[in-house]
Write a sequence for this structure.
């Protein structure tokens, strides 16, 4: 039997260890075994994929764009979650705010998440530009978890808090955060989504051409064979936020690619993804970090913040 495939993932929450130990157990004794390496950030994970330390990287859409840029497109997506193929950005406001569509944001304040979050910052700005609103909407940036690509959801919760506190008229959040707060289940009547983006892709397993089909195909087949109805598989799938693994939808990565890959920064030739053009020298001290979403933690965090905000508002009313 060949050596296990080395898969890289970013440790954005303690659950990541449980998830990947579960994956390792699932693949054990099968034709394509795996082991895993955890990284503190996506930049180092992408570098590890490029230099051959790992065979496969569990990447965000932003990390995928960076890999594409640095390999001149010589990379491929092996698989993704069913939830990754229909990811969306929502613009959310307080109930009864009068906001009804993208154009109604004109002259208003929009709270954005961390600047490296595709769903809560990068793509929302692109959507405003496409709607001719990029100069007519005041952007309130909340870089509270920079380096995590928005995975923790922290900056999106901070953006919602700005709306609750009436310091912003609307917030840009990912559909995972919207579903994690339970829509009206946690905060009945507090928020409403008044605009939803087209679907785009989020995460995928990324590999380079050096991983041949003789090794990649059995691994992908085993991954796709995970079954939601199998009690041994479900805990891993639940923690990772999916019901089934699917083949990648490459066309849905284009919105992020257009927004992130078409612009180069004058500072060292980097794009907003932090990508270094192929052949450009490395710059020391530059760190790239990672992202993620844990629904239970999001729910408890939102609950605490909303309760605190309501108490503060009630206290002001009493005075």
């Amino acid at each position: 039997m060949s050596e296990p495939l080395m898969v890289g993932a970013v440790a954005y929450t303690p659950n990541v260890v449980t998830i990947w130990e579960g994956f390792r157990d699932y693949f054990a004794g099968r034709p394509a075994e795996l082991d895993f390496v955890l990284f503190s950030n996506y930049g180092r994970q992408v570098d590890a994929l490029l230099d051959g330390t790992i065979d496969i990287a569990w990447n965000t859409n932003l990390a995928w764009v960076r890999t594409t840029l640095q390999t001149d497109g010589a990379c491929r997506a092996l698989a993704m979650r069913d939830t990754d193929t229909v990811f969306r950005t929502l613009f959310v406001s307080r109930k009864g705010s009068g906001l009804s569509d993208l154009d109604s944001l004109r002259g208003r304040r929009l709270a954005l998440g961390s600047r490296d979050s595709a769903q809560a910052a990068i793509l929302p700005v692109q959507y405003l530009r496409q709607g001719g609103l990029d100069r007519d909407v005041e952007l309130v940036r909340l870089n509270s978890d920079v380096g995590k690509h928005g995975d923790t959801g922290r900056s999106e919760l901070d953006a919602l808090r700005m709306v609750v506190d009436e310091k912003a008229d609307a917030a840009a959040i990912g559909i995972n955060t919207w579903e994690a707060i339970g829509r009206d289940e946690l905060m009945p009547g507090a928020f409403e989504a008044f605009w939803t983006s087209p679907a785009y892709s989020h995460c995928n397993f990324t590999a380079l051409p050096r991983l041949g089909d003789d090794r990649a195909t059995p691994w992908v087949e085993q991954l796709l064979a995970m079954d939601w109805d199998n009690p041994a598989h479900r805990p891993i799938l639940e923690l990772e936020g999916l019901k089934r693994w699917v083949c990648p939808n490459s066309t849905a990565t284009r919105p992020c690619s257009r927004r992130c890959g078409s612009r180069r920064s004058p500072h060292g030739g980097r794009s907003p993804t932090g990508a270094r053009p192929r052949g450009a020298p490395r710059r020391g001290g530059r760190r790239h970090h990672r992202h993620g979403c844990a629904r239970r933690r999001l729910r408890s965090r939102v609950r605490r913040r909303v309760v605190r905000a309501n108490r503060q508002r009630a206290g002001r009313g009493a005075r």
In short: Residues 262-296 have pLDDT under 50 and may be disordered. The CA atoms of residues 265 and 271 lie 5 Å apart. The chain has two domains: 5-84+201-261, 88-198+295-318. The domain at 5-84+201-261 is CATH 3.40.190.10 (D-Maltodextrin-Binding Protein; domain 2).
